[in-house]
Amino acid sequence: MREAMYWKPLGNNRVRCLLCPLNCIIEDGKRGSCRVRKNICGRLYTLNYGKLSSMALDPIEKKPLFHFFPGSYAFSIGTVGCNMHCKHCQNWEISQADEKFPYLQDATPEGIVSLVKHHGCESIAYTYNEPTIWYEFVLDTAKLA
């Protein structure tokens, strides 16, 4: 758990999360719509930093990209939580889970970048759920990649 980015205090220990367009107003002890950003005593924390629900090597052609490093592999990672609640989500069990999901693996940005390089991947795909909800981990990993 670490303090989240993109939020502001509202008084009375309430906060407004500014990470996604939902702009959740979160009471003390409660979570935003994504279920992985929590207000603790008037400060917003991310609960899924470095928590991987899924990891895979995927041909880049599997991704919704056109002519992006053709023939290469993407190192795909995802976490729990999502600010969208699509009824037909193919990853519902992952995207609608929280940090207590039993199959989570701990990871660091340095560890992910090391794996990416070890496997010769040209890219990292933050996938399986909406990547915005673990922005801090995505940012830290991208800075190293």
Automatic annotation (TrEMBL):
Domain Radical SAM core: 78-144
Lipid biosynthesis recorded as keyword: no
Transmembrane residue ranges: none
Co-factor requirement: [4Fe-4S] cluster
Source domain of life: Archaea
Keyword annotations from UniProtKB, A to Z: 4Fe-4S, Iron, Iron-sulfur, Metal-binding, S-adenosyl-L-methionine
Gene Ontology MF, one: metal ion binding
Pfam families: Radical_SAM
PANTHER family assigned: PYRUVATE FORMATE-LYASE 1-ACTIVATING ENZYME, PYRUVATE FORMATE-LYASE-ACTIVATING ENZYME
Protein name: AmmeMemoRadiSam system radical SAM enzyme
The species this protein was found in: Thermococcus paralvinellae
Lineage of the species this protein comes from: Archaea, Methanobacteriati, Methanobacteriota, Thermococci, Thermococcales
